[in-house]
Amino acid sequence: GSIYDPERPVIPPVDDKPVTELHAGTLLFEDIWPSGGDYDMNDVIIEYSRTVTFDKNNVVTEIKDTFTPVWDGAQFLNAFAYQINAAQVGQLALPEGAVYEPEIQSIVVFPNAKEVQKQKFIVTRTFSGSLNKQDLKAYNPYIIVHYKPGANNRQEVHLPKQMPTDYADKSLNYTHDDAYYIHRDGKYPFAMDIPIHNFVPVTETKTIGSEGEYPGFTKWVKGETGYEDWYNHKE
């Protein structure tokens, strides 16, 4: 009785409604990997958003990934795909034309970036109470250069430190100007994930980091401080 206070105001019960978190950004791909070249990082540009819905116990009930190709400066036919952790595929609902590759837990979202500019592609995964939010793994996005459905030994371009799938031609790794996993020998990654939308692409025939084309980029890559938001300063 010592902790009971009849004058204490009534506290409403905790809201049991699901909570949804949003993550968004832009993926930039250079499809000349592993060879060097213009390095303009504007061959395939995709805006993405991810909503993760979970209950009061932090159990994930739904993940919705939205991908919008917004620029294609490539000469090649490039597909966009992303690989999911094998234990976190859930129940898939795919957009029209998307293909799930169950052997590698990867989704080819669209086969030709040039043909689908400004279109939205939504992949939804639902779960039945077995995935805790703290255990959620990031996905592995990539493009497939010269994509041919069902072909193995394909040319995949991934973010730094992300592994190629088992369908990739791994003989290309560490060849030519490859910076597949991390900046090395003065070379740069061939894919980047930046935390904004409405990124202005680098001008064709120009190189990212050159004058008027995000000059802070090269300083950021070299580790200089003050250039972490290079993607906001094109001039």
How many β-strands, per DSSP? 11
Using the CA coordinates, give the radius of gyration. 21 Å
- Strand-residue fraction? 25-35%
Order of strands, main sheet, comes to: 5-8-3-2-1-11
Quick structural overview:
The protein has one helix at residues 216-221; strands at residues 19-29, 44-54, 60-71, 78-83, 91-93, 99-101, 106-110, 121-126, 140-145, 155-158, 191-194. The chain is mainly β.
Topology (SSEs and partners):
Layout lengths: L18 E11 L14 E11 L5 E12 L6 E6 L7 E3 L5 E3 L4 E5 L10 E6 L13 E6 L9 E4 L32 E4 L21 H6 L14
Antiparallel strand pairs: 1-2, 1-11, 2-3, 3-8, 4-7, 4-9, 5-8, 6-7, 9-10
Would you kindly provide a written description of the structure presented here, covering whatever features stand out?
This protein is mainly β. The protein has 2 domains: 19-201, no CATH class; 206-235, no CATH class. 3% of the residues lie in helices and 30% in strands. The chain is built from 1 helix and 11 strands; from the N terminus they run E-E-E-E-E-E-E-E-E-E-E-H. It has a 6-stranded antiparallel sheet with strand order 5-8-3-2-1-11, with no helix packed on it. The chain has a 5-stranded antiparallel sheet with strand order 6-7-4-9-10, with no helix packed on it. A hairpin with a 5-residue loop joins strand 2 (44-54) and strand 3. It starts with 18 loop residues before the first strand and ends in a 14-residue tail after the last helix. The model is unreliable at 1-6 (pLDDT under 50).
Fill in the keyword field for this structure.
235 residues; mainly beta; 2 domains; six-stranded antiparallel sheet; five-stranded antiparallel sheet; 1 helix; 3% helix; globular
